[in-house]
Amino acid sequence: MSGDETPAPMPDIANAKPGFIRRRWNWFRKLPVVRTALAPATTLSLGFLTLGGFFAGVIFWGGFNTALEATNQPSFCISCHEMRSNVYEELQGTIHQSNRSGVRAGCPDCHVPHEWTSKIGRKMQASMEVWGHIFGRISTRELFLTHRREMAEREWRRMEANNSLECRNCHSPEGMDLSRQNPRAAAAHERYLFTGEMSCIQCHRGIAHHLPDMTGVPGWQQR
Amino acid sequence: MRKRLLPAAVVLAPLALAGALMAQDAPRLRGPEPFTEEQDAPPMARPITNDVRVRRNYPDQPPIIPHSIDGYALDLNANKCMSCHARRFTEQSQAPMISVTHYQDREGNTLGGLAARRYVCTTCHVTQTEARPLVPNRFRDMDELTEPERQPGGRNNR
Q1: Which of A43, A78, A147, A208 could form a disulfide with A84 if both were Cys (CB 3.0 to 4.6 A apart)?
Q2: Number of domains comprising chain A
Q3: ipTM above 0.85?
Q4: Cβ of A211 and B93 within 8 Å?
Q5: What's the burial of B51, exposed, middle or buried (CB within 10 Å: 0-12/13-18/19+)?
Q6: How confident is the model over B28-78, as pLDDT tens digits?
Q7: Which residues does chain A have within 8 Å of residue B92's beta carbon, measured at their own beta carbons?
């Protein structure tokens, strides 16, 4: 270990040429639009800005929410022929579409989470479905049937992961009166649902739509 | 002209008469109203869902289904019945297993799974409803014929 080595020259911070990011940032800060936006208001009053901001917020948030609700209607879903002539057609006559009490579950009731964060997440995923519609991934019945298994599996995965949350928006184990179920259903619910061993979707597959080829799906073996 | 009409009447009259008689005798599956008038359909009967096994009327009668099968998938892609009645699921479902004949092909060879010829359960097994029979059923149990004295009511019961 020798002490008389000359130390490495310190970088000259003050006179160094700024880095790439800093240069871009400086350029951005000097843009006229940005300078105006960052400068204090000179002619508009604080009251106008506050109230104006409030009302603009109401309009924007309201508009966003309205758009979100509009895209969360079955009528929106079936505005695409893929949905209308395949899955919506199959929904007709099932217990979730017509029943003695007239309560209906539309597409989003089961396919879009009701909780806000998950809902936005699902909505972002759904942009892929717009892509699929534009490029016709399931534009014919044959294409739809080809992809049915993978689409069904995606829904099963989602519901198994969130403990059949969408079912539970309406159906709750606490609300079930086992004495009004037939003994077979009551026994199954008592043994698998109440113990948390299984969630709804693991038994109740294909209750609203037709099923894909179920070869290899757990619970559907023919042995 | 009359000479021609008479043989025709002789031939046609018994036919018309027979037709009328047979029409009276035919089982009126659609009720007493004439078939030319459109009738309201009777209300749909509900399936019996009490899960109680029903005695078979003869030993090789396919057992009836004592529960509702509304909305059960039974097509080329999926067979919902087997989700409970397949051998591997009977423990968890407590449902009766499909009989061994369902694992055999037509030559009697035992297969690893459900034989294709037994796939469509509802060909033989059906649900029951409380609907009134359209025609009387005169079926009699074999025991009733061979051992009438052992039946409730004995011989006088016939």
Answers
A1: A78
A2: 1
A3: no
A4: no
A5: middle
A6: 676 777 878 888 887 888 889 888 899 898 988 999 999 999 889 999 999
A7: 191-192
